[in-house]
């Protein structure tokens, strides 16, 4: 029972981050499941099965707040589903000895990317309003869906930054559209895992725990997407992912422990703290230099 409560709380926290930032639900959840001793394929299967429900609730919540572009959802979600099904099939047929370090490397790389993306570059801004075409969205969906299934997370980590970098959608609509498409991707990935592993390879009580935690917080996360500081949250989540997966690789793959391992963790924690402090300062500078809303300036002059 304690494990189920922990998983429900993890699902709640993961969805809170994902619904407001557009990424990291799968990575956070998968890291926890791997720490509990689950195989990579089973962990990814649990996460994607839960994401069917959380994705639907999150997508509906984002739509309610006007955060969804349904044309983008279709154009990125369908190829994402294809990539996710293929990725789930590939991961299911890898041996556990090979799959664990492969997934840890993927997760570590994604964590490093997220940390760098939001700490150094911040949130990209471009010319909003120009429609996103299939030539752009189809390959993004295929890559994000495949990586999301094989790495246990990656749909939002790839899709959200790429769409943000395009600068053609408001950030809140990028987050909402990627989240809404996730349900379709999760269905395809789940079918791939079920066909390859069978239902006996899935812990359904864990799926339910993640589902309950995620669906409870999804509407709140969708509302927060309009106000959250993505730069700070991105640096926080990215650093946590790096730290957790570096520990897995050092201990289980490179067999580094004791003083050397502790020194590596201390250095990583220091770098994480420095990245977070930089993001906080950068966010404050951006907030101070941001022009005041027109209505506020008019009321002051009056």
Automatic annotation (TrEMBL):
The keyword Transmembrane helix applies. Keywords: Cell membrane, Membrane, Transmembrane, Transmembrane helix. The chain crosses the membrane at residues 98-116, 136-158, 204-225, 232-250, 256-277. Signal peptide: none annotated. It is a multi-pass membrane protein. The keyword Acyltransferase does not apply. It is found in: Cell membrane; Membrane. Belongs to the 4-toluene sulfonate uptake permease (TSUP) (TC 2.A.102) family. This is Probable membrane transporter protein. The lineage of its organism: Bacteria, Bacillati, Actinomycetota, Actinomycetes, Kitasatosporales.
